[in-house]
């Protein structure tokens, strides 16, 4: 640019006003060039940083999944041993009280194994691809397992544990029995935990939609401290106590 201006002025082909305009244009182009070069440099720098972070997140998730997998495998072995020994007790000629305790141990052991399998599926939770396991299950057996695992806790706190099951509930339903158990056990456990005196009640009702479909309604009530109205929006927040 400078060489061209020197040459143009020397031969008198550019007027002073034109030269000033040309200089402004040249400076503008120069500034734009610098800005574009800096922007490109910053974008490349950000891309390198983003790629580094992506690799770090990938390695962290890989390590986490590996930890969950190994831990779940190690825990599963002693639980299977307990369930196996408990099964031998059920085959022995023992008292009704021992059989009842062994049946409760079996139900709790099966649920615990299912929970451990869920740990292995942690990556599915993170990706939003966890699916319900839809299979036939016996409602009476499911409710018996839940009550068998929890009534002793209520008894230890001297609480009444009431169960009211509607007689029109079908004996067999199709759904994810394990997830239903998880939800009910968590809610009833909390009810027992935060109730100092009085009772905890589980009510089960059936709302028929048609001959093959019904809405199952589970209600847990207690005489405990309750939840403040301002804390209700946080009910489904992870790791948030209300």
Between the first and last Cα atoms, what is the distance in angstroms? 72 Å
Strand order of the largest sheet: 2-4-5
| Helical residue percent band | 55-70%
C-alpha-based Rg, rounded: 35 Å
Number of strands: 5
**Mean pLDDT metric:** 80
List the topology elements.
Elements: H1 2-10, H2 16-91, H3 96-120, H4 122-127, E1 135-138, H5 139-156, E2 160-165, E3 172-175, H6 177-193, E4 199-208, E5 214-222
Give a quick summary of the entry.
The chain starts with a helix and ends in a 20-residue tail after the last strand.
Descriptive notes:
- With 242 residues, the chain is of the alpha+beta class.
- The protein is 62% helix and 14% strand.
- The protein is built from six helices and five strands, in the order ααααβαββαββ.
- The chain has helices at 2-10, 16-91, 96-120, 122-127, 139-156, 177-193, and strands at residues 135-138, 160-165, 172-175, 199-208, 214-222.
- The strands form two sheets. Strands 2-4-5 form a three-stranded mixed β-sheet, covered by helices on one side. A two-stranded antiparallel sheet has the order 1-3.
- β4 (199-208) and β5 (214-222) form a beta hairpin.
- α3 crosses α5.
- The model has no long low-confidence stretch (mean pLDDT 80).
